[in-house]
Amino acid sequence: MDTIVITGASSGIGLETARILALQGFTLLVVGRNEANCIRAKEKILSENPDAQIEYFVADLMQQREVIRISEEITSYLNDKCDGKLYALINNAGCVRSWYMTTEEGYEQQFALNHLAGFLLTYKLLPALIKAPGRVIMTGSESHKGIKVRWDNIMLYRRYNPLTAYKQSKLCNILFAKGLNDRYNASGIRAYVVDPGLVNTEIGNKETGGIVNFIWSLRKRYGVTPDVPAKTYAFLCDRENTPEGLYYYLCKEKKYSREVTSENADRLFELSERLCGIHYGKVESL
Amino acid sequence: MNVMITGAAGGLGRAFANECASRGYNLLLTDINEDGLLCLKRGLERQFDVTVATIACDLTNPESVDKMLDVIDKHGIRFDMLINVAGLDYEGEFMGRDREKIVKIVLLNNAATLRITHAIIKRRRIGKPFTIVFVSSLASMFPMPIKATYAASKRFLLDFAISLRQELKKEHINVLTLCPGGMVTTQETMSSILAQGFWGDATTNSLDAVARNTIDRALAGKSLYVPGKLNRILSLLGKIVPRSWVAAAIYWRWKAVSER
Description:
Chain A is of the alpha/beta class and 286 residues long. Chain A has 8 helices and 8 strands; from the N terminus they run E-H-E-H-E-H-E-H-E-H-E-H-H-E-E-H. Chain A has a single domain, classed as 3-Layer(aba) Sandwich (Rossmann fold), CATH 3.40.50.720.
């Protein structure tokens, strides 16, 4: 059975996506930060669908050593049970912050979790993705438009604005997907970004304070329920159909920022590789 | 420029390390958390073109400090700046806390800070200006029930630093004391700041700005830095209002918060 890894799947968009994909018969490896929430998520999916194949892995993906640890656990699971193949990786885990906070490496937390964690996890699971060949899906946001990557100060150090940091991390998601397609389409891998739209989840209330918490509490009331964006992930995981686009909203292709170019993607790869201490392959000539 | 930072793997320590590295300073980082130090070293070296050395050390243990000094001496390292960040706090009433934990506050915040400061001043680069930063706290300005030991330990640092500054002026050594309000360094500090509502939020300082301004001011020869206008007003009040009144007001407020 085809296997899908989905991060940030113990609540919100990730949980709903995991639920729908389990109904379609995929084996699900869900990653969450809190074990109790992971257990609750697993029980929720099993209560509706007792035959669902679901395993959970607990990790704080903001910390690179945690990403490396679970990538090894996931790889050995895939080798034991799934013929070493990974059908899809959904890099969904993300956060919002109100203040400049850093990871153990001293990296800004939104950039570290929303972009670098997925960048590193994808690299670590690349052999399994190539073997399938699989798909990589990022949870993006329409807010990636209207800004540029601050190449000389990607952590926004000294000029920290939490919203800019969030938007930039979401722009990085699309650049990463673009760069993955440039490098690995020839190997059969496809990368996508989903714009979930405004969804009623807790993202802006988790470990935020002051104005960010308040605004999000007001905004989320107008959001759709998480099953709406979950359908787009399911569409992109469809076995019968390999969509050709990059950025999707409500199962349809959407226009993305003009900043999303191969040149910027290469630049982001180079920078992110340095920050993760890894090296993806060269751009393949098609 | 060689800078030593204690307590480097914590939130404020990392902010100082980032700030120094972004200025191109070479770093010797120490902390009791060895994994944290190694992660930070990797992160800094991947971002900046600087040399970062780490030595895990328990500053409250004289032997552990001696071992670290041996390594420093073996490599002949000399310093231009020392940033004393290492410190700890356990919140709660004096009699409600574990005895040894309370003693540990003074052992680290005071005794260990004196030990390392003495050792590193001896290992400063001769003939060049030297800078010392002590991380005290806004809490040093008031007697603070519930944080009694912590606030007093930070008061010790403040008074000590001001005196030391006079003694060392002739040697071209500047001593700056940083007295920040709350800073969002970890998820726990964030929850505790949020629990305090408006005052928690209003006295909170942004980590990156505090690190940057502290080093700017220390290098400019300043003696005290209280980040934030409101915090400066509060510290002024601490000097005018009788100390027993301040203590009563703070106790009343903390009680109100903890019952929330």
